[in-house]
Amino acid sequence: MNTKTVYIYDKNGVFVESYMCQESPLEPGIFITPENSTPIEPPLIPIGSAAVFSNGEWSVFSIPTPTPPVIAPPTPAELQAELVASAGIAMAKLDVSISRILRKGIAVPADINAYGDALREIFIGKDTTSTTLPAAPTDYPAGT
User: Fold this and answer.
1) Could you give the C-alpha distances from 121 to 64, 111, 112, in angstroms and in order?
2) Three-state SS at 122
3) Whole-model pTM over 0.85
4) Fewer CB atoms near the end CB (10 Å): N or C, the chain?
5) Collapsing DSSP states into helix, strand and coil, what is residue 85?
6) What sign does the dihedral 92-93-96-102 (CA atoms) show?
7) CB distance 9 to 15 below 8 Å
8) Strands (E), 72-132
9) Which of 14, 23, 20, 22 is nearest to 42 (CA)?
């Protein structure tokens, strides 16, 4: 059975792939070819380019490099919302620590109380000038 190479292009004429078609068993000399194909071989296509079939011939066009999207910096309101959310998470963690301290019958140290108060001020919106969370205490009572 004889074969013949044709070149397939999409609905816009852009080269897709080469295709080996077969000769019709009912009509010798006639090849069964897919739609949107041509026996005309496209030229060498450099990287970053595409071959387009139009009006019986191939043309090569450069594919424009997409411009990366511009990512706007967060607004002050978005930064504040993120800080408030982070304060809420830090408060939840602190509550666990305070619970452990109290279960041991130990008084909550002043620096831990002050840290919790500062987080709460951010969380409830009373402190709107802070841009970061306060430093967490590092010296927790032993065994907590």
Assistant:
1) 52, 15, 14
2) helix
3) no
4) N
5) helix
6) negative
7) yes
8) none
9) 14
